[in-house]
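Entry 14. Structure prediction run on the chain below.
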Amino acid sequence: MVNRKKLNPDASPQAAFGARLRRSRDARGWKQDDLGARMGYSGRHISAVETGRKPPTLAFAVRADIVFGLEHAADTFERAWREIRHGSLLEGFPEYVGHEAHAAEIRLYNIGIIPGLLQTPEYAKVLADSAIRRGAITPEQAAERISFLAERQAALVRPLPPTMLVVMDESCIRRPIGGPEVMCAQLDRLVEFAALPNTILQIAPFDIGERRPFDLPVNLLTLPDRSMVAYAESQAQGHLDREPTSVLPMLTAYHQLQAEAVSQADSVAMINQVRKGTP
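Output returned:
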């Protein structure tokens, strides 16, 4: 007890998880080895989670709920784990992703970066590693971000996949990310995507100028009941919107964007030209 590290549950969702784990253990008079034995982990592992040196996993959180009898409680360790997992995501985005997995139609518009649903793992890792170097996220958050993206992509592979309409600003394909090998594979992925029967891919060229209706990335979902959800974000904020009075004008603007963008055939030709290094 003399060397026991003082915990600050207000420091982060992960710190709050560790502090709660310790409080729950102390309330039962268990040592870290005792709890570890009940959960199937070492006492050293329990210590690392409590003090924030190791992030909890979903399996760890589920085992904690079972051991402490919280499986049917409103405030479970699993719920706390999900707060950690989504802690680096912008407000509204986790809820948007829940709708995305069941959407009948997905409309995307991106500037500068290939949309996440179309990114290769290598492209996504380069972006995550860059965020680590800038100090924007931790290595653990980067790994979770990549895993989360893979889950989003996998959720769209289903017997009745959604119709996906994607418009990308020309900057998305001309901005080099990760070097020639990574970028070449990413452009190949776009061409493969365009060939799918449930997709439409278009490039909004630079020369549409002021006729471009959006200055920020936009996501529009048509849900199975035909209602619509819009999600838009800036660098620091995300906003989920279900109100028809604001979502429908965004849909109109998206249609205007599609009219200004080049056709899918010409878009694929442009992507292939960039891939070959021709202007």
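The beta strands are 105-110, 163-169, 199-204, 218-222, 228-233, 238-241.
Filed with the rest of this week's runs.
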